[in-house]
Amino acid sequence: MTAAFMDLVDATIVNIAIPSIERNLDASFGAIQWITAGYALAFAAGLITGGRLGDIYGRKRLFLVGTAGFTLASALCGFAAGPEMLVASRLLQGAAAAMMVPQVLSIVHVTFPAHERGKVFGMFGAIIGLGAVSGPLLGALLTQWNLFGLEWRPIFLINLPVGIAGLILGRKFITESKAPKALRLDLVGVLLVTVALLMLIYPLTRGRELDWPLWGHLMMAGSLVVFGALVAYEKYKTKKDGSPLVELSLFRVKSFAAGIAVQLTFGVVMGVFFLVWTLYMQIGLGWSPLKAGLTGVPFSIAVSAAAGMSVQKLVPRFGRKVLQAGALTMATGVLLYIWEAGRYGTSIAPWQMTLPLVVMGVGMGLIVAPLTDAVLSDVPREHAGSASGLINTTGQMGNALGLGLVSVVFFGVIDEKRLQQMPAEVGTAFADAFQNALGWVVAVLAAIFLVMFALPAKPKQHMEGADAGDDSAEDAGDAGDAGEPTKEPALAG
């Protein structure tokens, strides 16, 4: 639980401190994007491999290695001397999280008998809710307080005592376990997917600053070739030893293929919105980190409340319609936000943002909690572990892609040279860019709504129950591929 909380808080705490990091390190907007996207990219690329390493070498061992690496990387982030070192440290932090996070729920599967897991997952849900609310607030307070003159650095350094506590407690109380039939590693697959994503995302983040050079377009086109090579290699790997990184046969299941598309595009929405939202409030409107952090509290509470309601009461009765209602509700909230940002301009107040943020939060909560069950509904049980791993990985990839697209949909409409000559226009320029980015978010949510028609009308709520009914170490090993299917997306998000 300590590790899960640390990972979730770290995923949400950084955004609120981005403007402070930009000022303090004199970082370019491209570097700012990589501070957030780099973590998501490294996390996505290593998630499935992290789960398999735990199956092969021991989940406790990998948990402790991942936690130690995450703590060390946090220290390097906190003492980063420049933007380049911070980006590199964030990449290391994401890679360490990919070793640590998949072990959390697989250890739960092995440690607790079926009749006790409900209590554990209840605690896990509470930790997720607490992390979602406390991450932005903690980031705001630590940045605002400027402890010991360290400005933004405590948002990373706070992981040191938490990580050390996790290591001590983990070493003492966690029982070691391995999967009797663990799949082999597919490091070539990991390399291909990482290279393909880098070739796509790097030109997106750097292109605008470099006036969109030819090599950038060639790299993005080349990424499609590498993705093609990945598919070909995964087919070969399947025939060779039956342990590919990506189980391509899953895409023959219509609901799974559609769900992966939803997960990817929803990740893009999250990547775009949270970064431009922070830049809009703190740079555009000139708000303090604390004011911006407090403004987001109603959003976090709405997400948590709607998520609990959707899984327990709404989805069992209305099925797919709940997820589609979530997409439409979130789009409505975004449209409200666009209207308010245009009407009130730079004089907009936090209380005026409450309504669109609550509507958006309710919509998001209706989607994130039940999505994985809907996607896995028609997937054969023997592939549940690899399928859930692919869902989580795809969400992180979408997040990294969305962060890369910020340079196009947000910074692409800002004339930096003009703002250097007329700094008084920064607020108006950022408000206009914010509205433009949200327009793209609405378009993506509309696409998500349509793709959701391919999901099962009434998802079968069987995945967690099936796991609970079988306590074998092998099932726990399947879960080790990426964590327990119905809960992990909230953690990864």
From TrEMBL:
Chief location category: membrane
Compositionally biased region (Acidic residues): 467-478
Keywords per UniProt: Antibiotic resistance, Cell membrane, Membrane, Transmembrane, Transmembrane helix, Transport
Membrane topology reported for the UniProt record: Multi-pass membrane protein
InterPro entries from the UniProt entry: EmrB-like, MFS, MFS_dom, MFS_trans_sf, Tet-R_TetA/multi-R_MdtG-like
Record domain Major facilitator superfamily (MFS) profile: where: 1-458
Pfam families: MFS_1
Taxonomy, superkingdom: Bacteria
TM regions (residue ranges): 31-50, 62-81, 87-108, 120-142, 154-170, 182-202, 214-234, 255-280, 292-310, 322-339, 351-376, 397-414, 434-455
Subcellular location as annotated: Cell membrane
Region annotation (Disordered) ranges: 462-493
Listed Gene3D superfamilies: MFS general substrate transporter like domains, Multidrug resistance protein D
Alphabetized PANTHER family for the sequence: ACTINORHODIN TRANSPORTER-RELATED, MAJOR FACILITATOR SUPERFAMILY MULTIDRUG TRANSPORTER MFSC
Name recorded for this polypeptide: MFS transporter
Species per Swiss-Prot/TrEMBL record: Streptomyces solicathayae
